[in-house]
Design goal:
This protein has 210 residues and is α/β, with parallel strands linked by helices. It has a single domain (3-206), classed as Alpha-Beta Complex (Spore Coat Polysaccharide Biosynthesis Protein SpsA, Chain A). The protein is built from eight helices and ten strands. The chain has helices spanning 30-41, 71-81, 99-112, 137-145, 151-158, 169-174, 184-187, 194-206, and strands at 3-8, 24-25, 28-29, 44-48, 60-62, 86-91, 116-121, 124-125, 129-133, 164-168. The strands form two sheets. Strands 1, 4, 5, 6, 7, 8, 9 and 10 form an eight-stranded mixed β-sheet that branches. Strands 2-3 form a two-stranded antiparallel ribbon. A hairpin with a 2-residue loop joins strand 7 and strand 8. Helix 2 runs antiparallel to helix 4 (137-145) and helix 4 (137-145) packs across helix 5. The radius of gyration is 16 Å and the shape is globular.
Length: 210
């Protein structure tokens, strides 16, 4: 499969109070956890926008050209530097995502040819756990230049009509398309605060992080 995986780690982590990428969960940094998932998929794994080095992380880190413009700046980095057609983008704060789901989503993106393949959970799009085609870079750059930093709006601007494949995670999971060890709402939980990290730690004790 012609795909790469990128972890977006350039945020300022204001709600956490310190760099989220360095926060430990079950003995490993959040960044290390996310890279572990990409390595399990067998795709090249790189990091966009990391501000400071993280112990134990050896993956290539590419700085964002437009710092402090939100996740869209990391997406620009990933799309502009990827050498593969499909770009799996993951936020650094999603440690409970399961790799079987990511495998399924990559295959779906390859099969449909959509410019963006984006899960929707409880009616809310998940642009920081999605697969994008490299051609979207031109629209993403246009959005940044226009000061439109919202990822869902930028993807819509960058994609041709009908180019976004949004799918309801709940419906597809109910068909048994992939095996889930924990409820979907936990898998997509962002670890933005110390309390959310504590919750993720408790959930991880009940079933392994894959």
């Amino acid at each position: 499969m012609d795909a790469e995986g990128w972890v977006l780690a350039g945020g300022r982590s204001l709600r956490m109070g310190r760099d989220k990428a360095r926060i430990e969960l079950a003995g490993r940094s959040l960044l290390g956890r996310m890279l572990e998932k990409l390595e399990a998929l067998g795709v090249r794994a790189r990091v966009a926008g990391l501000r400071d080095p993280v112990d134990g992380v050896t993956a290539e880190v590419i700085p964002d050209a437009h710092r402090d413009c939100g996740p869209l700046s990391g997406m620009e980095t990933a799309l502009s530097r990827s050498e593969a057609e499909l770009v799996l983008v993951l936020g650094v704060d999603l440690p409970l995502l399961e790799t079987e789901f990511l495998v399924w989503m990559l295959r779906r993106a390859e099969m449909t040819g959509a410019m963006a393949t984006m899960p929707v959970l409880l009616g809310k799009p998940q642009p920081l756990c999605a697969v994008y085609r490299r051609e979207l870079i031109h629209g993403v750059r246009a959005a940044l230049e226009a000061g439109d930093y919202k990822m869902t709006a930028a993807v819509k601007r960058a994609s041709p009509e009908g180019g976004i494949d949004r799918f309801a995670v709940e419906r597809v999971a109910a068909t048994g398309a992939w095996r889930s060890l924990r409820p979907l709402h936990w898998q997509f939980m962002n670890c933005n605060t110390p309390n959310e990290v504590a919750v993720a730690e408790a959930v991880a004790k009940q079933s392994p992080i894959l």
